[in-house]
Amino acid sequence: MHPLVVALAALLPLTAAAQDAPATKDPVALDTLQVTAQRRVENAKDVPVSISAIQGEKLDVLGSAGDDIRFLSARVPSLNIESSYGRAFPRFYIRGLGNTDFDLNASQPVSLVYDDVVQESPLLKGFPLFDLAGVEVLRGPQGTLFGRNTPAGVVKFDSARPSQDADGYIKVAYGSYNTWNTQGAYGGPLTDRWSARVSALYQRRDDWVTNTRQGAPAQGFEGYDEAAARVQFLYEGDDVEALFNLHKRKLNGTARLFRANILKPGTNQLVENFDRDEVSTDGQNFSDLETWGGSARLKWDLGRVTLHSITGYETAESLNHGDIDGGYGASFLGAGNYGPGNIPFASESADGLPHHRQWTQEFRVESNEWGRFDWQAGVFYFDEDVTIDSFNYDSLTPGNPQTGHAVQQQRNKAWAAFASGDFDVTERFKLRGGVRYTQDKKDFSASVLQAVPFGTPVSGPYIAKTDVNDVSWDLSGVYQITDNLNAYASVAKGFRAPSIQGRLAFGGVSQADSEKVISYEAGIKADLFDRRARLGFNVFRYNVDGQQLIAVGGTNNTATLLNADKTLGQGAELDFEAYLTDHVLLTLGSSYNDTEIKDKDLAVAICGGGCTITDPTTVIDGGTYALVNGNPLPQAPKWIHNLTLRAGFPVNDASEFYVYTDWAYRSDVNFFLYESPEFRSRSSLEGGLRLGYNWDYGQYDVAVYGRNLTDQVRVVGAIDFNNLTGFLNEPRTFGLEFTAKF
C-alpha cells in the first residue's frame, strides 16, 4: 500500500473524534481564494492557469523548524526545490523544467517574484519566508505578464502589507540542535494617509555534524546563523497609492556538506553503518551571504485606467567554500592515505560574488472595468551586473592555501513591451490573450588569474556576447459550466534567453542558445458542497525546442552548457481542499510528470568516480560519453503527492486543542543527465506533526512540533567527478513554539 495512504488511514480516528465536537452555528465554508496570477486580484477559479496557493497556518506549520525556502518542495503539485549550496542557492523545478547549474550567474526557467520584483540571481531566490500574505505557484509558461525566464512557471511571494489597522505578531520556537526560529512584525497608521510595517526574522542552529578525521580542528558542520528584516511604508491618497519596501538578509554558517563514498557501488543505498552525525574531511567549510534591496510600487487611478510603476533594486555579496571531494588524505596524483574510502584526488573550492547589482523598472497601464473588454499593457527594463570569483585550494597543505583563481563578469540588459486582454464573449465564456516582445543582451568575459594544478593555465580574457529578441504569447478560454464549475483551456509560448558560463579552472567558456517552449493545458476548477470543498484538476503537455541543459562534473569536473534538440513533458495535476467536518480541514495535492529528452546525438561526459552508467556510450576524442536520448530530465520526479489534515477540538467559543499533520511524497529522480543507479535518488516521504492549543480567539498559540518524523535519510544530490559523494536531506527535529498576535 502507498505510504501516503497508510498515513491518511492512521489519521481517520482523529477526524471521527473531531466530528463529535460541538458544531458552530453556521456551517463553515472555504474563503474565496484570491490570487494575482494575472497581475490583478481575481478569484482563482476564474484564472486559466494551473495555480496553487499556500497561506496562513499551513505556511507557518511547514516553516516551523526554521528551514529555508526548500521546505516548499513537493508541498504543491509539480514543484521540486534543491540546492548544492545549502540555504544560499535554491534551484526550482516546475513540471520537471529547471536548471541544475551551480554557477552564480545561472539562469533558471522558474522565475521567483518577491513583492512584484523579479529575483534573477540564484542567491536572491533564497530570501527567508516570514510575515507573508501568501505564496502562489503558477505552472506553465508565464512569459506574457511576468516576462523573463518563466517558461516553466513562477513562484510568487507577497509580503503582508501595512494598513491603517494596527496589528502584529511575535513567534518564538526552540527545537533540536539548539535551533531558534524567532520572528515578528508590527504595523499600523502613522497618519491618516501613511502606514508602516516592520518585520524581522532570526534563525540559528548549532553545528551538529562532527568531523571525525584524526587531528581535525574542533569544527562542526551544518549550523547556521541567519537574520532578515523588512520595513514598508504605504501612502494611500485619493487617487494615488505608494508602497515602499526595504529589505536585508545576512547568513553565515557552513556550506553544503559533501560526504565522500556514502553510496554502495551499483545501488542508490547508503553504505553500511552510515552515520549522518559524522563526516571525515580535511577541507574548510563556510558560507557567508549578504543581500539587500528596495522597491517602490506606485499606482495612480486615472479614472478609466490605472497606471502602475514598479522600481526594484537588489544586490548580493557572498563567499561559499566547501571540501568538494568530501573526504581526506588524497594527493593530486591520486595516491595517499584515502579516507573515507577511495578519494582519487583532492578538491576544495569556493565561489564568491564580490559584486552584484540588479535594477528593474516596469510601467503598466490597466483598464478599470471597461465592460466586456479589459486589458493591461506595459514596458519592462532589466539591468544586472555581476562579478564571480572561483577559487581552488590545497587541502593537503596546512592552512589550505589558494592554488587557483578565475573570474567571470557579466552584464545583462533586457527590455520588453507587453499587452494582455480578456473579452467576455458571452456571460459564461471569456477569452484571454497576451503577447510580449523581449530583447535580451549579455556581455561576458572570463579570465584565469591563477592556474589550477592540472587545470587551465593563466589566460584570457575570453569574450562572449549574445543579443536576441523573441515574442512570447498565450491564448486561453474559460467557460462557466455552472455557477460553481469552470472549465478552461490554454496554449502558451515561453522563452529563455541564451546563457553563458565560464568554468575556466577546469575547462572553457560554453554557451547555450535560446530555449522556447509551447505548452498546452486544459482543466477544471470547482467549488463543491456549498463551498466546503475546492477542486482543481488539469492535464498538460509541453514541447521545448533547444532546452538549455548543463553537463556538470565528469572526470574533468567541468560544467558545459548545451542545448537539447527537443524535450517533451506531459502529465496531470490535482489540488483539493475540503472541510470534512466543521473542525477537520483536509488538503491534497498530486502531480504526474513524464519528461523525456529527445536528441539522438546528445552526449555528455560520464562520472569520474566509479558509478555504473546504464546509458549507451560513445567515444569522442578519446573520452567516454553517455548518450542521453530518452532519459528524463534531472531532478524531475514523476510523482509528487502531498497531504495536510487539521483536526480541531473546541474547548469553548474562544479556544481549542488541535492536531495538524502534513506529508509530502516525491518519487525517485536522476541527479544528472545520464542514468546511473548510484546517482538516482530514492523516493522520499517526509511528514510533520503539530499538537497545539490556541486561545483568546486565536490570539495566542502554543504547540509542540516534529519535522521529518520518521527520520528518513535520503541522498538529495551528488558530486560525480571524484567519488560517490552525496549530500543529504534535513534531519528529524522536534520543538516548541509560542505565537502571540496583537
Automatic annotation (TrEMBL):
Gene3D superfamilies: TonB-dependent receptor, beta-barrel domain (2.40.170.20). It holds the Pfam family Plug. It is a multi-pass membrane protein. Residues 1-18 form the signal peptide. Residues 274-709 form the TonB-dependent receptor-like beta-barrel domain. Keywords: Cell outer membrane, Ion transport, Iron, Iron transport, Membrane, Receptor, Signal, TonB box, Transmembrane, Transmembrane beta strand, Transport. GO terms for biological process: iron ion transport. Belongs to the TonB-dependent receptor family. This is Iron complex outermembrane receptor protein.
